[in-house]
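name: query_chain
kind: protein
chains: 1
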Amino acid sequence: MTEKPDWTGRRLEVEIGPVAHGGHCVARYEGRVVFVRHALPGEVVVVEVTEDGGGGFCRADAVEVRTPAPGRVTPPCPLADMARGKDRCGGCDWQHADPATQRELKAAVVAEQLQRIAGIERSVEVEELPGGPLRWRSRARLAVDQRGRPGFRAHRSHRVIPAEDCPITVADAVPEVTGRNWRPGAELALAADAEGELHVTAIDHKPQRRRGRPVARQVRGGGVAREVAAGRPFEVSGQGFWQVHVRAPETFTEVVSAMAAVPRGAVAWDLYGGVGLFTAPLAEQAGPAGSVLLVESSQRAVEDAVGNLRDLPQVSFRAGSVEEVLDDGSLDDPDVVVLDPPRKGAGRRVVAGITERRPSRIVHVACDPAALARDLGLYREGGYRLAQLRAFDAFPMTHHVECIALLEPDE
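structure:
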């Protein structure tokens, strides 16, 4: 039996092929696939193999560029510098590419996932959000190393890379927690809200009491972030879900509203509705004679949503899993459905629960192109076609991309 190779630590010179989903590009060496981070298509680079399970592929980091691509730039963050080797921060994937190149790479990934998984041939443009590629992130989570220093984890590792700042996070947020020591092994959740207040929660994963459950302690701010979108104020728990790009809530609300176009007096559903970001414009479109149902699994988020939308009596709320709520046969069939599922996607049960009700429009928000493609395939099985797709660079410097899709009945 032939022994499987282990190239861990080995350096290889390779020519970089196409971008792949996950923040890396594909190269080949001696018949094996090498997934390379910190490289760009068309480059010739020297890589160091970081993981090798002995199968048909391994993972590697570029450590030297022999032939750079036109889109290569010097990373704006020192923690992404190639000279750091394994001590690079794992939070960003494309610090070495200029913004236009990043969007081109993300567009290629979305198009490839749609074609390969869902069989949908479609050209994709990833749109830039206002504000540029830096200082866009309003929420961040830092880990604390064994010396009490906060930082970010290395790629695919629990190792903490100490940080003094993070150039993609809003100014002054990270430096506020890096000037002191914290309990080793803890995490720090940061949320900078629209009023400029910074909320910091220390999460202890190894408490001495409470039977080992994580203990959260508010160390700065009131713990309730005050946000604004489409002219409406929202209050969100400091650890609750809110779009992390400071300009994303406004942009996404406009796009979702335009795609949903809820008729006056109609019924709409907002699934995975959070604190009501999309529910508000849907309710305004439906008017007093219409109705909107917000469904959300987080009880705290539902409580926030009730407070945020108290002036909209046409909105009702259900706390619970979307799957279970959709099984309720007493619900009025919706004319329009909006859903913003978690990264893993909606899945067969949720998609079937929607398509069986035959809404005239479905607006699907997705932060993972592979999950989106899987769900689009399920919508097609349920008799719906992709009518419109917009993609946004809501996470510059990372491989993540936000897509908003409009589905209509395939007549």
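note: The chain has eight helices and 22 strands.
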